[in-house]
Amino acid sequence: MPKMDGLEAARTIVEHMEGRGLDQDRRSRVVMVSCLTDPKYMLEAQYQSGADAYLTKPVEPAAMEETLAALGLIDNPADEEGA
Fold first, then answer.
1. pLDDT tens across 42-54, in order?
2. How far, in Å, CA of 52 to CA of 5, rounded?
3. SS (H, E, C) 17-56
4. Which strand (E) or helix (H) includes residue 16?
5. What letter does residue 3 receive in the DSSP assignment?
6. Could you tell me which of 56, 12, 5, 3 has the C-alpha nearest to residue 30?
7. Which DSSP state fits 4?
8. Which of 1, 10, 59, 65 qualifies as a cystine partner to 49, CB 3.0-4.6 A?
9. Of the candidates 56, 13, 6, which has an alpha carbon nearest to the alpha carbon of residue 33?
């Protein structure tokens, strides 16, 4: 991104939501998708920037579905298979 990197963008988004007084249940979820696989960067991305999840490219559809289900944003696809 030309003006800021993904970590700074995530921090800015999270700080903005916190500044507006939004609690965990009302705020947007931040899912970072990157080609960077360095464990240090991944930990910083997810825990220090406030991102809810971190996925590395190429992202498999099943991994995205699992992540979104874990965040409570979609129904768990595994539950539908057993139905």
1. 888 777 888 889 8
2. 17
3. HHHCCCCCCCCCCCEEEECCCCHHHHHHHHHHCCCCEEEE
4. helix 6-19
5. S
6. 12
7. S
8. 10
9. 56
- Say how many Å lie between the first and final Cα of the chain, rounded: 42
Pairing of strands 31-34, 53-56: parallel
Q: Which of 14, 29, 26, 13 is nearest to 68 (CA)?
A: 29
Residue found under tokens 């997810």: 46
Whose tokens are 């947007």? That residue is 28
Tens digits of residue pLDDT in 27-78: 889 999 988 888 888 888 777 888 889 899 999 999 999 999 999 999 987 7
Burial-class residue 3 by CB neighbours within 10 Å (0-12, 13-18, 19+): exposed
